[in-house]
Structures are given as C-alpha cells and as structure tokens.
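Support reply, case 0932

Customer input (verbatim):
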Amino acid sequence: MQRVEKNRVHGGKSPGIKTFLRRLSAGLLAAGMLAFPVQAQEDAVSAQGEPISVGANAAIVIELESGRVLYEQNIRERLPMASTTKIMTTMLTLEQENLDEEFTVDPQAIQVEGSSMGLVEGDIVTLRALAYGMILPSGNDAANSAAVRIAGSQEAFVRLMNERAQEMGLVDTAFVTPSGLDADGHYSTAYDMAMLTRAAMQNPEFCEICKLYRAQVKFGNPPQERWLKNHNKLIEMYDGCIGVKTGFTDNARRCLVSAATRDGVTLVCVTLNAPDDWAIHSSLYDRAFASLKRRSLSELLPQEMKLDVTGGNKTQVPVQCAWEPIASVSQGEYERLQVKVSLQKLEFAPVVAGQTVGTAEFYLDDTCLTKVPLTAGEEVAGITKPKKSFWEWLGSLFGS
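Our regenerated output:
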C-alpha cells in the first residue's frame, strides 16, 4: 500500500476502494474585482451574463454536484490539453481489477519524453502505483505502462479512451496518446475536461490520489518505496484545493484542472493555455465561493404530501423525503428554484414505512440540481377477509 502525505503531514494508507460509480450557482464575478491581469475576450461571461475575461485561451468553473456552469470563456473551443489527459487515463486504470497485482513494465512503453515517475527497464509495478505516478509527478512513463498493461498497446488503450469519451457525451474530445503529449488530432475543450473531471471524482480512490501533496509508492527491481511529489502547487497555495491535474507541452502551454471545496460546496475549474493559472483559479474560486451557500430545499416542497392507498387499513399515507434535499446556490438562484414532485397515483396495501413511492426534483431553470426519493412515512397494513367455515361455504352454495 502507498504511504501518503497531505500538506506535508503524514496521513494513513490509501484506501483500497475499487468501486467506480459511473454517472455523473452563479459566480458573481466582476472584471474590476479580479486579482490578476485579464485578457480581453468579448465572449467571456459569468453565469449571469456579466462580461468578464481571464488570461486563458479557455476557462470554466462548474459546481460539482449539479455540473452547472458558473463561469465560461471559450468553453467549447477545441484546444490541446497536455497532461490533463491523464485524468481519463487514470480513471480507466482505477476501474481495473487486481490493482495491486505486480507486473514488469513494458520496456518500450517507458521510452517516452517529458515528465516521468522514474521507471526503468525491468521495474516491477502495480496499476495502483502507476495511477499515483500519473497524477502526482505526471509520469508519461506511467501512463504508457498502464495503457499497455490494460489494453495490450497504447493504440488499443487510446481506443478505449475515445470510446469512453463518446459514452460520456464528450463530443469535442479526441485522444491520440495516453499521456497527453502533443499529437495531431489530440484535443478537448474546457467544458469537456470539466465534465470528465466530474465523472472521475465519483471514484473515491481518484479523489484520494489527486489531493495529495506527495505519496510513497512501491516500485522498482526489486520494488522499494519511493516518494512521488505532486506537481499541482495549488494544493498548498489555495485553502480547500483537493486536486486535480496539471499539464504542459510546447503546443498546449500551461493547462490546469483543479477542484476545491469550502463549506460543503465543491467546484471544478479548468484553464487551457493560461500562463498565470494558479492565480486565475484562486481568484475564480474566491468569487464563486463568495456567492454560493449550501441550502436546504425542504421548504420548496408542498406542505402536505399524501399518497392514496387501496386495500389497506388506511386510505392515505403521508409522504416524506428520504433525506433532506440540499443544493449549493446563491440567494438569487434560490428564489428561482422550482420543484417537480412525482408520486404514484395509487399504491396497493400493504405499504412499508420507508418504501419509495416517488421523487422530488429541484430545478434551476432547466438544470436539475438534485433529485430525492419520496418515501412512505408510515406503514399501511393490508386488509384480508376472514376465511369462511365449511358450513358458511356450504350454505352459500344453496343461497342461505
């Protein structure tokens, strides 16, 4: 197991969680309030339509839970994304079985330029160790080695990457390399990278790795523990930063995908070709966090919800939320929220307390912020007719 260090303080062992759940707020940003030089771009706007731009070819901030866009600037423009590519490579790696099974790295896979976790021919590794090597020091050797181990070749693994991108609806993304090194036809957008990150962060182990300042990982021949340091300086620079991935090539320039959390609100920020990315992410986060708050949505529900029941000792049963509905919204957004309650028209007894009987969906405009099951608040017993005696049955035959 890997030993990890968070912000220079030793943590525990990385959890061996392999379950990957596939699924899948307005930023009040004023140009004069940004604490970094801005680059004039006419189409850069906040979620409320305020003209604003930052020093990046493309930038986006989303709220993680709902996926809604809080800030956008050229978010659909196809651009090279450098080593932020490894978000997809790591996500696919952590979905594999036998993450801790040892194997010898492919000697051709590690012959690659750029950043490295330090693999040499004959080294013995695990896929879990390679995941750390991809995210922390951005090892191109780690990405290629994982690709060959999983799919048999880098080309076959790239096909898996593109298949997953299509499944996720990342229509403006195409992968050519597992590492993100410059290649013709290798591109994505700020929007697609934000959505990819949103999906990857549903994997608990991905989240655990990408937030670390450094980790001790075992590999070599024979395997021995070595410290790997995270290239993402924002983890130390910005309070609440929990990842995610840096990137740089001569063509893509500085790329950064980050995530940060504060008071229960989690945001993801992406910049592509942003020379001052640390400052840009920090400023965008400050403005977005200042406007958002975790709020209960319970008071938006009808005061009394009941479900009609037939065949039971009661004709109705009270309905309640399975858990308290909560969302990250600004005050202005809260006032625009609407709730859609869907209940079964009729339920047949018996009804068990806690039984799901519908859903409550909370919308901001066309975006569903959260969806909560509705459950029966109490039990309704079924009514059964007493069995007839033999003489009652016999009498019924003769009409008496």
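We compared this against your earlier run and they match. Two observations from our side: The CA atoms of residues 354 and 375 lie 5 Å apart. The first helix runs from residue 86 to 94. Please reopen the case if you see a mismatch on your end.
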